[in-house]
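Tokens for chain A. Residues wanted.
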């Protein structure tokens, strides 16, 4: 179920618990591709937000990392509080992005040249929505890639309470 911005339910969220729970939800997908999740999630991370929207946002990032990574690869998920922000990173060593794809990544209907590794489909509209959700939580979502074949790192920043 998706909720729009008019229906957000802002409340304290145990982000550590949310990340670990979402990773458990994504684990069957990872197992189908023999992928491994490496996690470095700090204990007791808290944010204020809509727990279901935050779960969908993190799920989108984890699923995207799996889609665009080869079978047998590692997906890294880390989270820590730093300088008044909770920073969540999801990093893969997958197909990577060209500089032009990076510029268009969060545009809902942009055409990207990067392809998923098992025909799972494009992620652009999901990532556009994920960035919108981050913004609705007074946060940000950015992507970095050193180029084609060099993976992608997504960084979600949310204000710490």
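Reply:
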């Amino acid at each position: 179920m998706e909720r729009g911005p008019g229906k957000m339910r802002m409340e304290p969220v145990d982000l550590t618990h949310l990340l670990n729970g979402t990773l458990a939800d994504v684990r069957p997908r990872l197992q189908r591709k023999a992928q491994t999740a490496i996690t470095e999630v700090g204990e007791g991370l808290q944010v204020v937000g809509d727990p279901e929207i935050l779960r969908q946002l993190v799920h989108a990032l984890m699923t995207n990392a799996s889609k665009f990574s080869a079978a047998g690869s590692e997906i890294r998920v880390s989270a820590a509080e730093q300088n008044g922000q909770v920073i969540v990173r999801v990093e893969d060593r997958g197909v990577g992005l060209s500089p032009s794809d990076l510029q268009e990544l969060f545009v809902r209907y942009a055409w990207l040249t990067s392809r998923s590794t098992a025909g799972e489909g494009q992620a652009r509209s999901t990532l556009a929505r994920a960035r919108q959700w981050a913004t609705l939580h007074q946060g940000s979502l950015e992507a970095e890639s050193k180029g084609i074949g060099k993976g992608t790192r997504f960084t979600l920043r949310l204000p710490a309470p």
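The chain has one domain: 34-159. The two ends are 26 Å apart (CA to CA).
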